[in-house]
Each structure stands twice: as structure tokens, then as C-alpha cells.
Prior knowledge:
Blueprint (H helix, E strand, L loop, with lengths): L5 E3 L2 E9 L3 H10 L5 E4 L16 E2 L8 H11 L6 H20 L6 E3 L7 E3 L12 E2 L5 H14 L4 E4 L2 E8 H4 L7 E8 L5 E11 L20 H8 L4 E2 L4 E8 L12 H4 L3 E3 L19 H15 L4 E4 L5 H7 L1 H9 L9 E10 L2 E3 L11 E3 L4 E2 L11 H19 L23 H18 L6 H24 L4 H22 L25 E2 L8
Parallel strand pairs: 2-3, 2-11, 3-8, 11-18, 17-19
Antiparallel strand pairs: 1-2, 4-7, 5-6, 9-10, 10-11, 12-17, 12-20, 13-16, 14-15, 15-16
Amino acid sequence: MTETHMLMGNVKHYDFLVIGSGIAGLFYALKAAAGGKVAVVTKKNRAESNTNYAQGGIASVMSKEDSFEDHVRDTLIAGAGLCKEDVVRAIVQDGPARIAELIEYGARFSVKHDPAAPGHAELDLTREGGHSKRRILHAQDITGRELERALLEACTRQPNIHIFENHFGVDLITTAKMGLPGPNRCVGAYVLNKTTGQVDTFAARVVVLATGGCGKVYLYTTNPDIATGDGVAMAYRAGVPIANMEFIQFHPTCLYHPKAKSFLISEAVRGEGGVLKNLAGEEFMNGVHPLKSLAPRDIVARAIDSEMKRTGADYVLLDISHLSARFVMNRFPNIYETLLKYGIDMTKEPIPVVPAAHYQCGGVLASVDGETELPGLLAIGEVACTGLHGANRLASNSLLEAIVCAHRAALLSLRADWPPPPARLPEWQSGNATNADEMVVVSHNWDEIRRVMWDYVGIVRTTKRLQRARNRILNLQAEIQEFYWDFLITADLLELRNIATVAELIVACALQRPESRGLHYTLDHPHPDPAWEKRDTLLRRPPPPSP
């Protein structure tokens, strides 16, 4: 796609600026393009996103055996008392219409054929942990990759959408930061062009954060390298409230192998009959939860963590070898082929697995329409905290939230009367910054933050561990901030600054919540506190001075 734009000085002007190219950002761009020019900024290539790594599927009520009420109930149960029921209902009820649009855009979901009715096919719905019915649409075990493909191809056909690859959002531009009179609003963003090393200025009437999550703040994660919490950090620096960051979902089953880099074993493997066992071959979930291996993710992750600590093992086993080899290979071709590369045949032997950081349930406080407290700034997808997930995300509700909230945010953008940005915005100022020759500092700090978070702010927490983590992170932040102002910025330095900020927010939210609820489990307060039901943890910071 040709990257064309209007130039006014060194400012690129668009009607809509989308930061992030996952399912939320692309779905929004396709809808907003009806009302003007859209810039999609993505820090890697356009297909690299958390969406692209989503194996399981997208949850929606698509069969006569299912109902909106069932889906709502399952979501509320998983959310452990913290979901906003009106948001849950809005997203669940809007799901089928948005699924139909995905199919119109070219998404190809797996179907099953009825031998008794040749030529007839229907969607192949599967089930995942926490769901009472089969309602997960999937494209074999590469659903995210298929959705990303379809939406990117649709965007390519839309002349109003311009995708800027290898562009990294640095900071939001607000009228308060510029010293302009009137209520504060977002009017654009500074964006690092990784190819040239220059910081460009993007101006837009509407800025949309669709940057995904923050899995890379932890040592072990199922997320791609780009998941460094950039949108949350940018919003926080602009003074936008951040909510519920203590609720980090750890996927129970990440491949344990010395040569594998955080390869996710889809929850659908358990949904189709896979069972968890310890190294002695015992099914340890039987006495933990009535759903056994299909229990909600927080329960399964804690059970695995407990079993590993009890036995001293480095991993547990996920076994689906009792099912037909043909079924397993057809249902999970990508997982099967990948495991074979590591010498594991899942049709004949169990898979070694460990929990890993997987999904950010909190984020930028936003409405179901993506609206944040800062006029002109929307947040959609994993970066946003809408109240859908509560204290624990129900499996495959994330892609559903992404398309429903993207659709609603686009409708809001098209009808909102937010004024255009000023004709001229201040260009980025590097001051006396020089090229850094101490990148070993960046690498060291990056590793230290991720290890501190894994050791002290993981699946099971204590107040003392959280306080230790806070002290270590604050010390590192001072060093990172000094480095940031003294040297020319790079993508590595920006990511380091962002994961440090997000780590601080996760710890601060965790220290605010004196109870265990959903994904936040602390040994000092091991039970839910009714006084904290429906209460969000909130953090905000006033807008910083201009750079």
C-alpha cells in the first residue's frame, strides 16, 4: 500500500489515527474509513500483533443450543464479581452481527459437514474453559492469523486507509501539553519512524489506542515481543485513568521446552478433552474444581503453580493422546506440526506445559464505545478496561470485545463533533540528546524488570513481595528516565520505558486491592472481600510537561 499523506510543515494530518494493527485497530479503521482518512501506525510489520497469535477462537452465541443469557452468565462467573453487567450484555448481544461482518470481510472459520445432508455445512463450534456451551468459532488452531489476514486484505482494498509499518508511538499530544486554552483534549501523537530514526508528528481529530497488552513485562509470556504495554503507558503519561492492572491472566498451558519461545498450547486442547496430569500421571484437577481441566484459567493456573511447588517439578503434562490421532491432527494442525519440530508427538504422548503471562484484563479506563476521560482519545481491545472481563477474562471473549468495541468506537467517531487539531503542532524536540553507546544498560534493565515481575508479582503474591517489586522498579525507573532524556530515543529504549511504567502500575494496583479475587491472588488476603466487589483500582497521573 502506498503511504500517502498531506504534509503541513512536518505534521501528517489525518481524520483518524489508529495506533496498533491487531483485530481492534483494523476493524475500527475499516469502519472509520467511511468518514475520512485513517492512519494505522504499527511498530513492526502490519501483521505482527497479539491477534495474530490467538489460536483458540472468538466466542459468540451462534447455535440454537446456546443463548445470550448463558454467555452473559458464564462471563460474569469468570469475572468474579467485577464485570459490568451492562457492558457484558452489550458486547455479547452485538457479537453475532459483528461475526457476520468478519465473514463478509473474508474471514474463513472452520465448518463441519453433515454426512446426512451433502452440501450442507455449519460453523464448527468448540468449547473452552469456563464456557457452558460450544460457542467458540475458530479457524482450526490459527484463528488469529486468519482474522488478521482477512482484515489486512480488506484494509488494502480501502483507499482511505494508510498503514505505516515500523512506526512506534512515543507519546500522545494534548492541548494541555501544548499550553493551549480550553478543556484538555488529544490532538495527535509523536511517532518514531524506526527506519529513519526521526520522530514524526501525527495530527488527528480522533486518536485510537489499539496497542494490545503487556505480556513482555513478565519473564515468561505467550505474547509476541511487541506486547510491551505501550498504549497503557502512553495514556498514563497523558493523565488518563488506568484501571485494574493487577488482573494479569496467566495462560495455564505454555509449552515447556528449552528451545521453544513461549509457544501457546490453546485452551481448545482442554476443550476437546485434554486433561492435566502431574509427572506421575495423576489428574490433579479432579479435586480442585467441578469442571476439572476445563475450569477457568485463574483456577487452572494456580492449581498448576501449586502442583509444581508441591512436587518440585518444572512443569506438568497436558494429555490428549487418548483421542483419535486423526482428530487431533485435523483439529490442531499448527500445534501438532510445531510440537513435532521439538520431538513431541501429541497424538502419542503428553505435552509438557507451564503457565505464562497471557492477557491484560485491566488497562485504559474506557466505555464500551471506547471513550476515555480525555476527549479525542479512544481505547479499544486489550489495551482498554471496559468492564467486560472483570477480575478474569472468559476464554475467547477478547476477540469478541475487540470487534464489538471497535465497531461502536467507529460509530462514535463518525458522529462525534470533536474539532480538528490545530493547524500546526509542535515538532518533537531532541534537545542535546546524543546517540547512546550504553545499550547494555537497556538490556540489563529490561531483563531485571521482567524477572522481578515474574518472581514477585506472578500467579501467587504477598504484600512483602509486592513492596519489594515496587522499590526495585522505582529505582530502575529513575535510571531509565535519565537515560531517556540524555540519549536519542530508539525502539528498545521506548519499550523499556513502557514496561517499567506498566510494571509500576501492575504493582500499584495489586497493593491497592486487599483481597484475592479472580487473577489477583495474595497469600496475605486469600479470600474475596465483599467490600471490594464491583470496585475498580484506579491510577492517574497529571499530564507531564512538554518534551
